[in-house]
Amino acid sequence: MRLIKGCLLVSAAMLSMSAAAQQWSVPAPQEFEKTTICIEDVDSPLSVELADTQPQQARGLMQRKSLGEYEGMWFRYNHERPGYSGFWMYQTLIPLDIAYLNKHGEIVKTFTMRPCRSTDPSQCKSYSPGKPYWSVLEVNAGFFSEHDIRLGDKVSLASENGSCITNNKNEQK
Fold first, then answer.
1. In what order do the strands lie in the sheet with 96-101?
2. CA spacing 20 to 30 A to 50: which of 3, 33, 125, 136?
3. Phi/psi of residue 29, each to 5°?
4. Of 101, 111, 106, whose CA–CA distance to 134 is shortest?
């Protein structure tokens, strides 16, 4: 009898989670502040929108039709996020590269994410780094490979004049 009650409870919980996922709606458009950042060994700075609040983070780059070559979005958190907490591509129209960053701005995991075409958000893949992180950078898909960005590379704010100081890793080899 306990087994049957347990199975019924699990089934009810799964149904309510499924219903909640299907009722999930796209967050309202947000205003984003911008800043300039540098990625180690990338000569040009990037202009990024800052997703610092929960509504901004929930909206992210959803429903955007394009992103400039040296543009992106930087999701910053005021606490460490667990490695199982990932990002998805529900209602995101453009393919993206994503980098999960530790407290020091070092890249701990990257993915290339493809748009999820499903109207059911529960059918969209989650990209979880498997390691704790403090912030996330999203740029156009292919940017990391084009600029030879690797695990351990560092992301930081640009200098006051908007420039980046680089140490070319190719020269160090």
1. 107-113, 96-101, 133-140, 71-81, 46-51, 33-39, 155-157
2. 125
3. -55, 150
4. 101
DSSP string, 10-27: HHHHHHHHHHHHHH--PP
State both tokens at 171: 């020269």
How many C-alpha atoms does 19 have within 13 Å on its Cβ side? 6
Express each pLDDT in 56-94 by its tens digit: 999 999 999 999 999 999 999 999 999 999 999 999 999
> Distance of CA 145 to CAs 33, 35, 77, 93, 98, Å?
27, 23, 26, 20, 12
Per-residue pLDDT, 13:
41
Q: Which two tokens stand for residue 56?
A: 């901004």
